[in-house]
Amino acid sequence: MATTETAATTEFTIDDLRRILREGAGEELDLDGDILDLTFEELGYESLALLETGVRIGREYGVELEDSTLTDVETPRQLVEAVNSLLVATRAA
Question: Are 51 and 18 in contact (CB under 8 A)?
């Protein structure tokens, strides 16, 4: 698990998101291949699972994802970009 200090210097990647999605699902998901622009619905993720993913990301990376951000993002690419924007803002603060 990344610490806040490590997270401050780390970029959040699609591989990080894949790992967190798998941990949260409690089952093996097919997240291999190019999933960046698939919708979370196509990946079998509902809004509640995405909110839990946001909590996991927040704990591990020391950022707070608003519920509205999590309900607005539709693809893994959008979520990765949102997390990285927060990481940049946290570093700048």
Answer: no
Task: Name the residue among 79, 33, 72 with its Cα closest to residue 58.
Answer: 79
Its pTM stands at 0.84
8 A C-beta contact, residue 17 and residue 79: yes
Instruction: Classify the phi-psi angles of 7: left when phi > 0, otherwise alpha if psi is within -120 to 50, otherwise beta.
Output: alpha
Those residues whose C-beta lies under 8 Å from the C-beta of residue 88, and which sit 6 or more positions away, are none
Cβ atoms of 76 and 29 within 8 Å: the answer is no
Q: Where are the beta strands (DSSP E) in the chain?
A: none
Collapse the DSSP code of 79 into the 3-class scheme (helix H, G, I; strand E, B; otherwise coil) and give the result: helix
Confidence of residue 29 (pLDDT cuts 50, 70, 90): confident
Q: Give the whole-angstrom CA distance, residue 24 versus residue 68.
A: 20
Q: Which amino acid is at 49?
A: A
